[in-house]
Write a structure and sequence with these properties.
The complex is a heterodimer of chains A (about 525) and B (about 110).
Chain A (H helix, E strand, L loop, with lengths): L1 H6 L4 H15 L5 H27 L6 E4 L10 E4 L1 H23 L8 H17 L3 H19 L5 H32 L4 H7 L5 H22 L7 H8 L2 H24 L13 H21 L3 H22 L2 H29 L31 H19 L5 H14 L12 H30 L11 H19 L1 H16 L2 H9 L7
Antiparallel strand pairs in A: 1-2
Helix pairs in contact in A: 2-3, 2-5, 3-4, 4-5, 4-11, 4-14, 4-18, 5-6, 5-11, 6-7, 7-9, 7-10, 8-20, 9-11, 10-13, 11-13, 11-14, 12-13, 12-17, 13-14, 13-17, 14-15, 14-16, 14-18, 14-19, 15-17, 15-18, 16-17
Chain B lengths: L1 H19 L4 H21 L23 H32 L10
Helix pairs in contact in B: 1-2, 2-3
Classes of the chains: A mainly alpha (about 525), B mainly alpha (about 110).
Chain lengths: ~525, ~110
């Protein structure tokens, strides 16, 4: 029984939220305690299943689980692949999901209809995008994810959300069209959609159709870069994320990482060292595009007045950093970037939750005037009488805010600093420590940008923090429930764990980066396993 | 046949892009529809054009007698998803029209 369950562990992160979503849609919204219980339990089981998958995948050294849907052998059927990177992302997603679901349970889940259903379907789409080994299947999961996110984006309604949602939907529909054009161009040239099979066929593509293949790859890449928010494809992102309700925005933090994940996966698998003439295709674009994104995000962080917008620009800085690091296509740099990815996703998600808790204590107009903040109104939430209204709340919020700011800015002593240190160290020593290779001009620019972006984040967050915590002693203390503070503490605690256990974590990231850069194990286990189950 | 298909994809995509860049939300949705038609035809053409060929292998070993079935399956999926997304966009469009009182995509007249 346990064995047969383990065989299907790989599909569990997709099947579980789907099942939960189906059950939830059948229950009326007035039974919100029941719906909430089902949603939280499903998310908890998802977290347990994801962790089990992570442990199972890493048991006994290097191991990849493939799952052939319908037991069709790999290049012909659709395959799910659980390797180090995808299982790590699935666990990250489940952690964020748990904290967002807990946070939403206090009040946001009741701000509109079908929150839990859409939320579970979003989880299904994100997990599917992480686990799939097939380009078209990726498109389908992307659409599932996007459809759920359109619904969640509009959750809570209001003119601002609908306006931002209109832009968000339009941008993503055009992106989907680009996605399809890219996929079909690649299929037209190579005749396959399986990622592992593609990696084997790309070096063999004749020269006269190579341009078509690379055009397909570039168009596909643009679709993911829009999702990841590379400048100049990112103008929609801060507005949309700021307009979304906070638990949804916390989940959106990982949605932009889905784009980054696919770029990382595809650029190393399809256009890695093995790709012959096409090797390192697009690397320079990612490097310089990422640098432009960091610069744009930095300016945005400094110029934004509301904290939610500031968080949106921090998402851009994070995406830009990751894209520039992926552009190096170097195992050491990738390892640092992966550590940064986990850390910044947790911190950003936490920040979105925190922003709402902090701003709850302020008047309605305070967002707009945050920089020249003077007026503090009532907290405007009379139904929240159950909350604890002591200065302890403010102290706790302040501490969480400070830690979050340090994490986002990448200052010592927390994991944000370690991540930046790992990345900068690897960028300056591309060939490994001690090798006397000259550091290129672009690398110096990137290092400078990274440090400046950290400084800018510190300045912006300090300004916001001073306006919120030091001037507002006369203001109402925000009323916060324990269940809303719990997710914030959970995410911060994970970041602190990541700091303390930096050694093992970096070891895992390095192993992951090695696997990504030498994908022989990936290709072998996807294309060889015809037995239909987990090896 | 290839020329006719190429021209029609080009015209559809061109009109679609032009309409998407227009300020009225209804123009945008028509543009998105046209663009998705162009993309669907494009996917279909990526399986190589062939007239009078069946797409299902039923015993004969001569693969040359068949059209590539995969793009047809892909295009079916893309049509269904595109249809659903257009319907969803229509709802958002109507909500935006109702809430802002204008059909400008930015929710206000310039």
């Amino acid at each position: 029984m346990l064995d047969s369950l383990l065989t299907h562990l790989t599909i569990l992160p997709i099947a579980l939220p789907l099942l939960a979503g189906i059950i939830l849609v059948l229950i009326e919204d007035r039974h919100h305690v029941l719906k909430l219980t089902i949603s939280i339990v499903a998310t908890l089981v998802l977290l347990a299943a994801s962790v089990a998958l992570l442990v199972d995948t890493n048991a006994g050294g290097y191991n990849i689980s493939t799952y052939q849907l319908g037991n069709w052998p790999a290049p012909f059927g659709i395959v799910l692949v659980a390797d180090r990177l995808s299982t790590m992302m699935v666990v990250l997603n489940a952690v964020l999901a748990l904290s967002a679901a807990l946070f939403a349970s206090a009040r946001w889940a009741r701000a509109g209809q079908h929150f839990h259903t859409l939320f579970q379907l979003l989880l299904m789409g994100v997990n599917g995008a992480f686990l799939t080994g097939d380009l078209f299947n990726l498109f389908v999961f992307f659409e599932v994810l996007l459809a759920a996110s359109y619904g969640l984006m509009l959750h809570g309604s209001g003119s601002l959300r609908v306006r931002a949602g209109l832009h968000y939907v339009a941008v993503n529909l055009v992106t989907s069209a680009l996605f399809l054009i890219g996929v079909s161009l690649i299929y037209g040239v190579t005749g396959t959609l399986n990622m592992a099979d593609l990696a084997l066929r790309i070096p063999l593509v004749p020269d006269d159709s190579r341009m078509l293949l690379e055009a397909g790859g570039a168009i596909l890449g643009i679709a993911f870069l829009v999702k990841a928010g590379m400048w100049p494809l990112s103008f929609w992102l801060p507005t949309t994320y700021a307009a979304a309700s906070p638990p949804v925005a916390a989940m959106f933090a990982i949605m932009s990482k889905v784009g980054v994940y696919i770029i990382l996966r595809l650029s190393l698998l399809l256009f890695g060292l093995e790709a012959g003439v096409s090797a390192h295709f697009g690397g320079q674009w990612l490097l310089y595009g990422g640098m432009a994104t960091i610069a744009f995000g930095t300016i945005g962080v400094l110029s934004s007045q509301g904290m939610a917008r500031m968080a949106g620009f921090s998402v851009l800085v994070s995406s830009g950093t990751l894209l520039a690091m992926i552009g190096y296509e170097n195992a050491g740099v990738t390892a640092g970037a992966l550590y940064y990815l986990v850390n910044s996703t947790l911190a950003l998600s936490c920040f979105y939750l925190l922003v709402e808790l902090v701003e709850r204590g302020r008047g309605a107009g305070a967002d707009v005037l945050a920089v020249t903040l003077e007026a503090f109104g009532d907290d405007g939430e009379p139904e929240e009488e159950v909350g604890v209204a002591t200065p302890r709340t403010l102290a706790l919020l302040g501490m969480a805010f400070v830690i979050c700011a340090i994490l986002l800015a990448g200052m010592p002593p927390f994991s944000g600093f370690l991540a930046k240190f790992a990345m900068i160290g690897a960028v300056l020593n591309l060939e490994g420590l001690g090798a006397s290779d000259a550091v290129s001009g672009a690398s110096w620019w990137l290092v400078a940008l990274l440090i400046i972006s950290g400084l800018a984040a510190m300045i912006g967050l300090l300004r916001a923090g001073i306006n919120t915590y030091w001037i507002s002693f006369d203001a109402e203390v925000p009323r916060i429930r324990v269940v809303e503070m719990l997710p914030v503490l959970l995410l911060l605690g994970l970041c602190l764990t990541l700091t303390v256990l930096a050694g093992p974590a970096m070891g895992y990231m390095q192993a992951t980066a090695q696997d990504l850069h030498v994908p022989i194990g990936y290709l072998g286990s996807v294309l060889a396993g015809a037995d239909g189950g987990v090896p | 046949m290839a020329m006719i298909l190429a021209i029609s994809i080009g015209v559809l995509a061109g009109s679609g892009v032009w309409l998407i860049l227009r300020p009225r939300s209804f123009q945008v949705i028509i543009g998105l529809s046209l663009l998705s038609y162009a993309v669907n035809l494009f996917i279909f053409s990526m399986g190589r054009l062939r007239s009078g060929a069946a797409s299902i292998v039923n015993g004969s070993s001569d693969l040359g007698a068949y059209a590539d079935p995969l793009p047809q399956a892909l295009v079916l999926t893309a049509i269904v998803i595109g249809f659903a997304m257009t319907a969803l966009f229509l709802v958002v469009l109507l909500a935006s029209r109702g809430l802002t009182g204008t059909d400008h995509v930015d929710g206000r007249e310039r």
